[in-house]
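ASSEMBLY PREDICTION REQUEST
Request ID: AP-0331
Submitted by: J.K., bench scientist
Number of chains: three
Total residues: 1304
Priority: normal
Notes: Please return the full assembly, not individual chains.
Input sequences:
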Amino acid sequence: MGAIEPREFLLLAPEIFLAVAGMVVLAVGSIGRGLAHRTTALISLVSLAVVGALVLTVQGPAVGGEAILAGMFMIDGYALFWKGIFLLATALTIVLSMRFVEEGGYPAGEFYALLLFATTGMLFMASGFNLLSIWISLELMALSSYILAGYFKRERRSNEAALKYFILGALSSGILLYGISLLYGATGTVQLTELAARLPAAMAAEGMLVSLGWLLLAIGLFFKVAAVPFHVWTPDVYVGAPTPVTAFLAVGSKAAAFAILVRILYQGLAPLLVEWQIVVAAVAVVTMIWGNLAAVTQSNVKRMLAYSSIAHAGYVLIGVLAATEDGLWAVLFYMLAYSFITLGTFATVILLERREYAGETYADYAGLARRSPFLAAMMLIFMLALTGIPPTGGFFGKVYLFAAAVQSGWTWVAVVGVLMSAVSLYYYMGIVVYMYLRDAEDDTPTPLPSRLLAGAIGLCAVITVLLGILPGPIVELAKASLLQLP
Amino acid sequence: MLDLLWLVALLPFLGAALGAVLGPRVDKRWTTAVALGAPGLSLLLALGCIFEYVRNVSPEPFQSVCYTWSAAGFDGYMAHEGGYQRFFVYMNLFMGSMLLLVLGSNYLVTFVGWEGVGLCSYLLIGFYYEEKFPPYAGRKAFIVNRIGDFAFLVGLFALVSRFGTLDYRTIFSAVAASPEAMGEPYLLGMSFAGFVGLCLFIGAMGKSAQIPLYVWLPDAMAGPTPVSALIHAATMVTAGVYMVVRSNAIYQLAEGVSGLVAIVGALTAIFAATIGLAQTDIKKVLAYSTVSQLGYMFLAAGLGAYSAAIFHLGTHAFFKALLFLGSGSVIHAMGGEQDLTKMGGLKERLPSTYRTMLIGTLAISGVPLLSGFFSKDQILAAAWGGSKPLWVVGWLTAGLTACYMTRLLLLTFHGEFRGSEEQREHLHESPPVMTWPLWVLATGAVVAGYVGIPRLGQFDIHVFDRFLSPVLLEVGHHGEAHHASVAVELALMAASVAIAAAGIWLAWKIYGAARGLEGGRGWAERYPAVHRALVNKYWVDEAYDATVVRGTWASARGLYRFDAGVIDGLVNGFRHVTVGTSMLSGFFDKYVVDGLVNLVGWLTQAGSRVFRRLQTGLVSQYAMVVVAGMLVLVFFVVLFR
Amino acid sequence: MEFLVQHGADLLFYVFAVGALAAAVGVITLRNPMYCAISLLVCFLCVAALFLLRHAEFLALVQVFVYGGGIMVLFLFVIMLVNLHRLRESSVFGEYAPMAVVLAVLLVALVLFVFLNYDQQAVAAAPGAFVSVEGQVVGNSEAVAWTLYRDYLLPFEIASVFLLVAMVGAVVLGRKS
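STATUS: Completed
Returned structure:
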């Protein structure tokens, strides 16, 4: 652990810029009467774009895999891929939020600043190569999320969601930290490559301590990706939080948690491969079964989507479980596709919410095909994609995940995945049935309140379909973004 | 791009499914958008594929060819102004099946598409199911096609029993590897190649309306618009030709059957052409013309000139689509009137339609430098090299074609108007949405022939041959070897131009100037027997009715009596047993099946109760769930590792 | 006496550990808010003592200053300002209390099981780690400074953003709108 070169800070330019941008947004939002909502959102979007450019230009040349700051911050293709997903997800979330925040009359500066801070945390997570820095960036993201979930403080549900999320999040964070400290106790390091190097010896000496340590660490991450049985917070928080925030949680938070889960399991805990594979398999199976079955019984669309996002975490865990290159790029591809599909779905839900929370039951979707054929068609595409029906990105994502699991010998898990996808058809198509086959009480056409939002939905739908028709380029990109495998 | 070929066929199916789901609930504009969008996209993809194919050759050339012809179909399709959701669903289903048929890389997929287009044609012909004739015509088409399909299926069984696969390339390379094995006696005194070839050809006869299975096609004109007529007459029917050419490896080894194909084709060509001379329904004339042109294609295929067959198929698609759409424009202008005797003198009122149809007529008649000339000339050249009598038949047919097409044109556009006053008021040129496709197709009808300029000695720029060459394997000892000398080639051209001119002249003589119908009546009076035979289409329908249809009815009645007498006795005996069993199964239903159904419902209810109980909203309880889950996992790993 | 000399540090550890735990239990069970706050203070001080036992003098002092001093004062201010004399009788776990007890017992049993099987001799991080920098013995404050501002600079900086977010959150959620 020698001195730090200035060059290493230059390599951190994107993350630093984003944090500063968050502070600027915060500042301009509170000067005088503050800037208009739109201006704030625009500043945030522009800074995200700049960050994207910085990631490519500053960190791009180092994708060979360079660990800087004493092995604490890793720049590799894997991190860059995830950073891309995070930036896109945040940008879309901002677009989704604009009308929502404006109509709710809540301060915009803090809202967007918190989103940017959460994204900063995510970027650090993607590159985190030391359990300590990973943990603190996770907390940065989580704390911002707690506040965002409770941002509509006039709504009781929003308050409740924030509080629940905070308490349970703190619990999981404690578990995670306890796991990290046990690992540190057994090996004397929290840096991932060193951890992997010292683990075999520590296993021989302190087997049980190491097992407990990594398990608690994994459980803390399972909580963040909302895997059963650590998913309990998800339905209440997803329903209670403002819908754009829900979208952000379902996409950004989940993706970031997967980014570090995979990195830690594959690189830090590589010597324990056999042990963690069993646990991940068990959790994946339980998650898929529980998530899908619970989704079947829901009558609130947001709640159904919450369970659906739980089920999708299960599918991704299948790819994690494979622990092969195929599994890894399948996870990357799936998370990218899933991000667009989910953001599109929530954007559609947002467009349909008349006031802050109305329009969330299945019945509110009755006759949508007649009231707003565009939204109905978009929703149809997203539901098909979530089910995994071609030609959508969801289809290829699932195929790749399941294929990777089968190739690495986890056929029975893949079989459960396929069966549960069939179950999911029931509740996704439930919405479609309501949209197309039920008559609405009120047949007047629903106007599109925001053309920007409609554009975002269309974009998500186009990408969803494109990924289903031309998965090639993204697959190639994901294949170029692999980690070194155990 | 070629990797995406499967999407080309899938898109129309999706369009159909979407259209069916949307149904009449949504606005017509949406239906139209879906119905036109899906095939439109697939057309773009297909064009992309063709483009890529042309740049780097791969072994699926054929498939791409057929898009030109599907494209022609789309053009016409676009011309139809909006309309029924059901119609569009059928149309998309048809597109999908057709694309499946031509894109399939094995016989089975082709067969699925084959059956799919059969079904769609049944649905489309019987579209006006509340009227009397269309459903009948639909059934007729379906049954006649089934006869062919049955033979096709038998052929497929034979193939699969021999090769264990239905994949084109595997089969053809196996055939090419051991041509001798194909020649050994197989069934009914035929060689294997002969038997399979015959079966496939019977299938093709049904689909492509060849003697004796052509009867359904003219009746198929009962379908709704000229567009559906177009898909029947210009698109679907070529599937048989496609299939025979695709299977050329087999036909090359089955000389007898190839000869039969050529003879049937030639006979159909001249037979249908003569009937066409006397029909008065504008759509029926075109239908018989199609049958006749298909005969040409089979003639070429039977003679081993596979490239010529497909070439003619392509050019024919252009001018026949043009003619059908032109007739559609005429019928539209006449307020639904299809009878030629009620038309006349439309030239001034429908200038665009007239000019484009004139081009189409000249093209199909084989006037030099238009597309029909090149393709027909290639077929006739092949016939000259293969068999002189067949050449004579084909040559005469060319004259007849020129004659009946000119007659159609003269009766429609020249002379005096013969319709009612009301219709005269109604006359108008079609809107641009209909005339534009006409002009596009007319351009095609003029230039499409130039991809296949005939080989004259060293002067060889026949692009089309090279495009197809990967599919046309040289199997056994002979291929497409009938290249006549330049002098003969030029002489043949002169001969076909002469007969075409003669045909046009004859038609002009009879119907031209102001003579109109009077001229035709004069000739009918001079040769009453011939005229009656032609008008009644040689009484073929009646003959079928008397033999096949009545025979079937008679045997059905016989079977019914057998049924009533013998079987019913047995049945009554069984009844008592059945009643007993049904009581048992009633119990089963009531207690077991109902029980199961109730169980499922109960499970869902109970499930949601469980979920609700677990999802109470109490944070402390959630925390307990998390801790419990953690404990389970930890015990699982720490204690049992 | 011999025993005390040899195991004095261990004994002190257990004394303060038990003290910290007992105080923590007091925080959540006592009904008078003032008593709760005092229990919390005791808990903080016990933890500070534990830090001292591990030669982390700087941490121990910070624990006393920041938690025992600053944060405690804030708590007491709040309690006095909102005039909270007695908390409402409420059961946190309600009908699930037995379940919670079972879980807690299992958790404790598990941790005990793991640590009783744990070989004391194989402690990876030596105590000297808190007073040396690259082999040279320095003061604990200096060692902490080096660790924080060089080795773990990145987490430290992220933590600063984290605290900013916490502040923003408190303002946003607490502000009257």
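REVIEWER COMMENTS: DSSP finds 27 helices and two strands in chain B.
SIGN-OFF: pending second reviewer
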